[in-house]
């Protein structure tokens, strides 16, 4: 797109007119500029990436290198890449599955291993590979304790061995392998799937995907927004919404964060077993059904563009195009302009297009809509020149001329691109449970860009009172604060006060969403996280807020003004604390005292010093002190970020691990001293579960290990108390 951007740099078309009409605007732009776009397309289409067995073999080799290093995640990933490049049904194609099955066997995911083997066996492969796979198949059944299938697999192996006329010693080798009976039968290592939560007080009749307590309201000042009719408690489930439309984030060789591991049609995990698109090299699916549905619905028009960088180049145009396709069959239906959003239904499970089509575009606020016109024109030119999209659809949709659909589709694309810019969500998935290892840190990765019309109605706050996370293509929204009946529900459009200062947030809100934020944080300077880093009032201990640059402060609580003379000295102390390596206990406690005398208790310095102290006492094995400072650390974070902030949950997870490992090292005879601590630890685990459950799609198995460990400690404690 770079050349086009340069070309149109001085080409500014404003959306700020009394009656913005995307049809007229697009038509004018398209007729004047389409030639340039055709040239641009010609250029990018000279460089196509096609199926290529040589490349597939190279990628498989890289996968093998990871396999040898026991890096199973990357080996699976590279076998997937290899599969994408392999010519369908070729030997290279079959080998990718064969190699995947080896990894899956290694990580004891026998179900998926069997699936890989069966796919591989359905293609042509050499007899030696076939024999290897049949033996692996038998071993899978043995591990899964499926006797009858195991017997059948063994028979198939023996038959093949007979057929191959192997030398005696080879025959023996294989037959012996089959005779080994596994001593410890294992169950399959597939992590159980976690069911979706249940909406508070059932689903609404009027508001699709929302809890029945939620209502849409529309006022002049606040526009459309969402309120609750009942009091909400932390954890109440407010929305469970399937994406109206989404597009996976496309692989970019320079970005290692994006991995090809999700089904392009349903966003299921497809790293272990997947099938590739038969034509392009960038798309995988979880099964054949997803592949054929996807082809019918959208991929038949996308696939050619996937052979170049076309869809990557047009960015948000890709998901907008997918939404556009959903409007085709209903002739891009709209809600009537006087639609009453308060009284009439919002959302229609079978045809949600007209509700998606009612989302704001903000055209009338945009200084410059050239970029949107460029993206829409690029898509239209691509469809016109490289696909039979218009030929196929114009008569089917009763357009008189093909050109009518060409222009109209461009206008709809413009609108949808604008709607995506101000309403779309980046769909994140949790990546931690890879290989079913709940011990890994929680890590989320962006997987797609999607649109959720019902959720989009919520207004923004820099401090949202909900959490939002995703499972496949479903968004789940929960309350993270109590909200009184009649209160408004706020999402955060990205300008979170924990990560951006007020100026940055205002720029984001105005620049992308065209409003001035007046949320609780933006209208209360003392709540800004950076203003917690201050001194406490000598009069009442309240928060001092800087009133002028020369160290004049005013207390938020009692309004008393202070002129702090020793500010420099404390600040020096603080910076010393941050830079001193291996500080002694005495030094740390002296520091803490000094900070306690002068700093506001929500100051980030306390988080820092408490963290150092917990580390110090973990190393020393001093459980009482470790507990004391862990609690102070958590309480300080809660007071800064909110009781149910995700960071608090993650911190708890780390602290629980430290405390547990300390307790575990204690002698049996000493355990009674820590009765209170062990009880508190169970409480901490419950706390952590509750908080993390608000932000991630977690099941009990994610906490099994730590709960078991804490349970074991309690058990030991009870025995020791009985023995007394
Ligand atoms: Zn799928
Ligand atoms: Zn394709
Ligand atoms: Zn705000
Ligand atoms: Zn005060």
TrEMBL record:
It comes from the Eukaryota. It holds the Pfam family SET. Residues 263-303 form the MYND-type domain. PROSITE patterns: SET, ZF_MYND_1, ZF_MYND_2. Residues 212-494 form the SET domain. InterPro entries: SET-MYND_domain_protein, SET_dom, SET_dom_sf, TPR-like_helical_dom_sf, Znf_MYND. Signal peptide: none annotated. One of its GO terms (molecular function) is S-adenosylmethionine-dependent methyltransferase activity. Keywords: Metal-binding, Methyltransferase, S-adenosyl-L-methionine, Transferase, Zinc, Zinc-finger. GO terms for biological process: methylation. Transmembrane segments: none annotated. GO terms for cellular component: cytoplasm; nucleus. The keyword Metal-binding applies. The keyword Transferase applies. This is SET and MYND domain-containing protein 4-like isoform X1. The gene is LOC108737320.
């Amino acid at each position: 797109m770079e050349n086009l951007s340069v070309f149109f740099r001085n080409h500014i078309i404003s959306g700020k007119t009394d009656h913005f009409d995307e049809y007229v605007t697009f038509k004018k732009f398209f007729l004047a500029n389409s030639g340039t776009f055709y040239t641009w397309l010609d250029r990018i289409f000279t460089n196509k990436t096609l199926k290529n067995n040589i490349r597939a073999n190279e990628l498989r080799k890289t996968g093998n290198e990871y396999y040898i290093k026991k890096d199973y995640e990357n080996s699976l990933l590279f076998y997937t890449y290899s599969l994408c490049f392999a010519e369908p049904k070729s030997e290279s194609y079959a080998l990718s599955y064969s190699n995947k099955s080896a990894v899956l066997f290694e990580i004891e995911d026998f179900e998926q291993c069997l699936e890989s083997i069966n796919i591989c066996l359905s293609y042509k492969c050499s007899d030696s590979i076939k024999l290897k796979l049949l033996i692996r198949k038998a071993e899978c059944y043995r591990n899964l304790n499926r006797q009858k299938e195991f017997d059948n697999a063994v028979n198939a192996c023996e038959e093949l061995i007979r057929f191959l006329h192997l030398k005696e010693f080879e025959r023996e080798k294989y037959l012996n392998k089959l005779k080994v009976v596994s001593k410890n039968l294992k169950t399959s290592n597939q992590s159980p799937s976690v069911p979706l939560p249940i909406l508070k007080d059932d689903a609404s009749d009027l508001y699709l995907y929302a809890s029945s307590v939620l209502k849409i309201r529309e006022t002049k000042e606040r526009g459309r927004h969402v309120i609750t009719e009942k009091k909400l408690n932390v954890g109440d489930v407010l929305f469970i919404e399937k994406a109206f439309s989404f597009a996976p984030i496309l692989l970019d060789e320079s970005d290692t964060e994006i991995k090809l591991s999700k089904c392009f049609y349903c966003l299921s995990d497809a790293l272990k077993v997947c099938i590739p698109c038969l034509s392009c090299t960038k798309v995988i699916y979880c099964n054949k059904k997803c592949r054929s549905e996807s082809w019918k619905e959208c991929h038949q028009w996308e696939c050619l563009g996937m052979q170049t960088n076309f869809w990557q180049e047009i960015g948000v145009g890709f998901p907008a195009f997918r939404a556009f396709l959903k409007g085709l069959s209903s002739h891009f239906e709209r809600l009537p302009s006087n639609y009453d959003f308060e009284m009439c239904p919002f959302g229609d499970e079978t045809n949600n297009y007209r509700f998606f089509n009612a989302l704001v575009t903000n055209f009338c606020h945009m200084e410059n809509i050239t970029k949107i016109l460029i993206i829409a024109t690029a898509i239209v030119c691509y469809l016109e020149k490289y696909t039979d999209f218009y030929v196929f659809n114009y008569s089917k949709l009763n357009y008189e001329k093909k050109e009518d659909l060409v222009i109209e589709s461009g206008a709809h694309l413009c609108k949808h691109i604008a709607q995506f810019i101000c309403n779309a969500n980046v769909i994140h998935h949790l990546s931690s449970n890879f290989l079913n290892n709940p011990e890994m840190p929680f890590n989320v990765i962006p997987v797609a860009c999607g649109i959720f019309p019902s959720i989009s109605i919520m207004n923004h706050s820099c401090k949202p009172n909900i959490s939002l996370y995703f499972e496949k293509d479903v968004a789940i929204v929960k309350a993270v604060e109590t909200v009184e009946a009649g209160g408004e529900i706020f999402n955060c459009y990205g300008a979170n006060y924990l990560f951006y200062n007020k100026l940055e947030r205002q720029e984001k809100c105005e620049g992308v969403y065209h409003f001035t934020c007046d949320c609780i944080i933006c209208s209360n300077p003392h709540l800004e996280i950076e203003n917690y880093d201050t001194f406490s009032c000598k009069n009442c201990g309240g928060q001092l807020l800087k009133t002028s640059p020369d160290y004049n402060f005013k207390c938020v609580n009692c309004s008393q003004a202070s002129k702090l003379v020793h500010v420099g000295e404390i600040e020096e102390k603080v910076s010393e604390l941050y830079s001193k390596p291996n500080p002694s206990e005495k030094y740390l406690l002296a520091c803490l005292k000094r900070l306690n005398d002068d700093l506001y208790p929500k100051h980030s310095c306390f988080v820092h010093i408490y963290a150092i102290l917990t580390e110090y006492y973990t190393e020393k094995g001093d459980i009482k002190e470790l507990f004391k400072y862990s609690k102070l650390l958590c309480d300080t974070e809660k007071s800064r970020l909110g009781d149910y902030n995700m960071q608090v949950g993650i911190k708890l997870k780390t602290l629980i691990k430290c405390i547990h490992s300390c307790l575990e090292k204690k002698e049996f005879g000493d355990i009674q001293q820590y009765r209170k601590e062990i009880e508190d630890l169970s409480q901490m685990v419950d706390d952590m579960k509750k908080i993390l459950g608000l932000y991630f799609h977690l099941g009990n198995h994610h906490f099994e290990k730590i709960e078991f460990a804490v349970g074991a400690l309690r058990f030991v404690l009870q025995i020791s108390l009985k023995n007394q």
